[in-house]
Amino acid sequence: MKENIARNASPKSRKRHRPLQVAAWLALAASPSGYAAQPAAGGGGIAPPSGSPAGSASPAESAASAGAVVVQSSPDVLPAVSVSAAAMSDSPLNLNTVVSSGVLGSRRQLDTPFSTSVVTGENLADRQVNKLGDVFAGDAAVTDNSNAYNAWATYITIRGLPIDWQNGFRIDGMPFISYGITLPYEQLERVELLKGLGGFMYGFGAPGGLVNYVTKKPGNTPVTSFDVGYRTDGVFSTHADLSRRFGPDGMFGARINATHEEGKTFNAGNINRNSFSLALDGQLTRDLSVYFDALYQQRRSNGQTPAIYTGSFTGSSLPPPLSGGTNWLGGTDQHIDTNLQLYTAGVRYQLAPDWSFSTVASYSKSLRYRNESTLTLLNGNGDYSDSRWYGNEGHQDLYWQGMFEGKVRTGPFTHRLVFGAAWQHQTNDYAANPVSLAFGDGNLYQPNPFRFYGTSGIEKYRDSEITQKSLFASDTMQLTSRWSLLAGVRYTNYDQRSYSTTGAQTSSYGQNGVVTPTFALMYKIAPDTTAYASYVEALEQGVVVDSIYANGGELLRPLRSRQYEVGVKSEHARWSASAALFRIERGAAYANAANVYVQDGNSIFEGAEASGSVRVGRDWEVAGSVMLLDSWYAKGQSYNGNRVAGAPNFVAAGRVTYAVPFVPGLSVAADAKYTSNIEVRPAGNLQTGGYMLFNVGANYMTRIGGHDVTLRAALDNLTNRRYWMFQYSDYVAPGDPRTISLNAKIDF
Known about the structure:
Elements: H1 19-30, H2 58-65, E1 98-100, E2 106-108, E3 116-120, H3 121-127, H4 132-135, E4 142-144, E5 156-158, E6 161-162, E7 169-171, E8 174-175, E9 188-195, H5 199-202, E10 209-215, E11 223-231, E12 233-246, E13 252-265, E14 270-283, E15 288-302, E16 307-309, E17 335-352, E18 355-377, E19 383-410, E20 413-431, E21 435-443, E22 460-478, E23 483-499, E24 505-526, E25 529-540, E26 559-571, E27 575-591, E28 597-616, E29 620-634, E30 650-659, E31 666-675, E32 691-704, E33 707-716, E34 724-728, E35 731-734, E36 739-747
Parallel strand pairs: 7-10, 16-18
Antiparallel strand pairs: 1-2, 3-9, 4-5, 5-6, 7-8, 9-10, 11-12, 11-36, 12-13, 13-14, 14-15, 15-17, 16-35, 17-18, 18-19, 19-20, 19-21, 20-22, 22-23, 23-24, 24-25, 25-26, 26-27, 27-28, 28-29, 29-30, 30-31, 31-32, 32-33, 33-36, 34-35
């Protein structure tokens, strides 16, 4: 698998179920009509600007509500709606939490007119999450295509659309290149997901969505914890977390996290990881706060499972699936070594009671060193041709943003205004002299005999540069106590250039005045229930076509997408729910019959999703999520009418958590997720087959020697189900085998 493949294609074939009709019923069911007569409170949808930046850890939020001096250090945090069952709480979906949603500014999640999801750090720890696909296992809108130990680490599809590895990921709101990067989940406060288009809020990016990792920040409560972990087959980890406030009235804060992980993975490979994160903040005056964040990770993984390419396969069904725990597909010579660095600094100043200004700058750097096979499937017996790619790549991202946020009144209307500017410069460096080898043929059900341990002298060159300069503004106007209207626009000057190994410019694309608008109408059914309708546009940057295609090296133009969505969100003490109907129109890109990677026609995605969580009695919590999706290629292209590759028709997930009453501190949980068959290719003639996965886990909290101790265990893929996992158009891989994870944490 070559990294600079045109990653923006996403194909499938069409089924004529009726997700929108079913979803309409789900949305109605989620809307508590009994509350419709209640007046809206607090202005009905506009949260006041936060006096400190959003993105803090939970202790910080608690401290802030208690009136303590707390500086929170990420001004760009996605709106979040929990769809996973974490430890029992009185607010399962956290919809009343005030967060920052990019250039929309800080507001309650309940008042954001888009579908969102958040998984808390506690939930990640309880489920012992090890890869991005597992983070959102409880969200039916997300399909797992990822592998924790190879270059596909961040591949997921959202509503049937692939996420953009160049523009679809942020850490504390700051951009970084995610390809091949598995984040240190134990160092995160939460992981947030914006489903669908984020063009207005975050600039260029594929319409699948955007993932934002929120790192742990210093709160008002001191933290000193240490934990040790184990994961199949012999991976051991240690992690330390230290947080303090100091200085007069606790005006300064610091939090440090450090992790070491190494051992034998479930497929007889090896992992060695060192991760470090630092968060500093200071409340210099009553109105002025500053912060600095840093994250550093060095990770080496070998013995990875290669991807299987089906583009040359002429059969109509895949061979029987293998266990993801097999080491027959490759050896320990294959590896991916990654280095990630991110440094962020920001300032926030409260100009007046209703107005604030914030500015932030970041620098990220990611490096990869890969020795990786791709197995080209030849027939239904499992024969393949093994080709190897060996080389290195690197990316750098410089980002700056300045933003004003405040309120004004014009007659009877209240306006929540956000406006500012942003600048981003991304560079991509690829191997100038990579090694490409054609080994020969093998079989999936026999050990791979080919080995190549690499060579020296691999050099990098500047392959491409991308610069975005943008202005943005939004106005959320309160029309009545129940109705509000949101309008926003981003104006972008975009420039993309590609270069040869000699440094000569080979292609370029530039466009000034690119406008990506968003509009939304919101209605407060009740103080705790919001209905909305929204429209948003987005542009995703053009890709450099991979060399496996006849037009390899060509720079394609940006694709425009549009999204229409209506939904409802409701938050209560013992239950929460959300539902949405959506239609996404995306420009289509794929390889045609002549093996030319082209942009032609549209991909259409229509669907419905709903999720909810309910407390049953004192000890039970039940959560569920469902998505119905219809997708097809449209408007005069070769695969017109076919279902888009990578998009399932139906996904359902559920989780049950039980606090054992006769063993105080013990809770047990079980979850399941069903994914329907997925088209592997745009031609619509090859499917993965549907599959269901079961997971179980247990957590026990107690005190030993005067210290809080938490013991956790998780067993994933309980039945050891073998299945083919879609990774990208024309690519599949065996799904992960049964694994067990253990962790013991002590708080001092």
